Model the fold of this input.
Amino acid sequence: MPPEWASHAGTMLTWPHNRQTWPDERLERVEQVYIELVKWIVSFEPVLLFVNDKGIKERLLNYLHHQNIDTEKIEIVIQPVNDVWVRDCGPIMVKHRKNETYAIVNWEYNAWGEKYPPWSDDNQLPKFLANKYGVPTFEPGIVLEGGAIDTNGTGVFLTTESVLLNENRNPNLTKKQVEEYLSSYLGAEKVIWLKTGLAGDDTDGHIDGIARFVNESTIITSVCEDEYNLNHDALKENYEILKRATDQAGKPFTVIPIPLPETKIDGETVDGSEHVPASYINFYILNEAVLIPLYDDRYDRAVTETFSELFPERRIIGFPCSDLVWGQGSIHCITQQLYGVDIPVGKSTL
Done:
């Protein structure tokens, strides 16, 4: 599995439409976040954008034209989808060890332990992409979401016990068996297991909200200084695990703490939580840029400067994501990088 900083063929998105996730005015507010997101992505790479029906496509194109966004780098595909979380249900691509060919690993997707039915349309997206672009496919036959794993591209993977060992995914698999699947299908040589994720994270604790690789030997991780914060203890434990972690040769990683923004919200989300999984770790690496979510005036500027130091050759772009994370995911959760495919852009017309 390539690291996210490897050169992309493009980025996959699905346009928000699910009123259960985005009730009332929430849908219109998150659409504005998406407009900002698409505007920045097409500045650096093509976009493959799924919409649920023709009416949504027409409204979307009007949005794009009104905002003067270059639709020549966007392919809009009408295809049934259940929700926006393509990081978890979309195609996870792997690269051949000896040449430049790619394949899709089509894991099963069950909406984080069958929490939000229906999910059958989302579960079909990898197969749809494989057929559309003629990409070879491997089917492990077990549940795995893209947000549950992160890799440095040289065989080291990060994940959490709270997700991959959760009985609501693959109740009959042991930790060793899960590692064998990651090895066989993604090329994992070593797996670093953290414990759990953020309060309010309905995925049960995806790694892309708490710790990520930024290069082969450097990991950034969320920390919380307030010992009374609901996330303090879990993040501290994860941080300690990472400081002790090593690569295949026994070499330790550079581990950089990133402050956790405020996760407590006024009111409740659709599943009754008073917290959302707001995290600067849920960034997305583009060709020549990095998109980071902004949430908290106390930390936004300092975190942006840290990312500039970590990615000196890429442009750092931050924009507010409080409306997006209200749906319990952020920038990384709604994006999926594609490799080795030719996105036929320039056809997104009314």
Observations:
- Residues 26-41 form the longest helix (16 residues).
